[in-house]
Give the backbone structure.
Amino acid sequence: MSQGSDVILSRMMALHPKIIDLTLDRVWQLLDALGHPERRLPPVIHIAGTNGKGSTQAMIRAGLEAAGGRVHAYTSPHLARFHERIRLAGALVTEDYLTEVLAECEAANGGTPITYFEITTCAALLAFARTAADWTLLEVGLGGRLDATNVVDRPRLTIITPVSIDHQQYLGETLA
């Protein structure tokens, strides 16, 4: 019997003792096991900053789609259901496909400690690499250069929204 995405996501929450642990090592290890889907994405627009990332992404997505583009989008957090984080060529990821890519990432990870955001970002990248689109929009989660979305080698465009002090318990008391 297949398990739904909620069951897999619950297991993924328990894979790492910390919610946030800033490094890219675990992400690179999983992406390697998955065959490096981050190398097969449509052109990427990477959006970072403290405030306005989601609004900026929504405006860019609306413009690209209005021009006839098929747009993948990854954002966090979600409001009601995890599915809101992943749009494939303009549509929210289906339950069946989300369950498939989550299960594949869970199996490839093999129980190795990895944060929820890291493994779910890898799942999004896997889904994006397998679905035709014209653009990929990636919203940074937290931490800038060590954020799991920062595995894309050459984004077509990087946008930095206003940056201010936030999440001091993880990022420290300065902007440096």
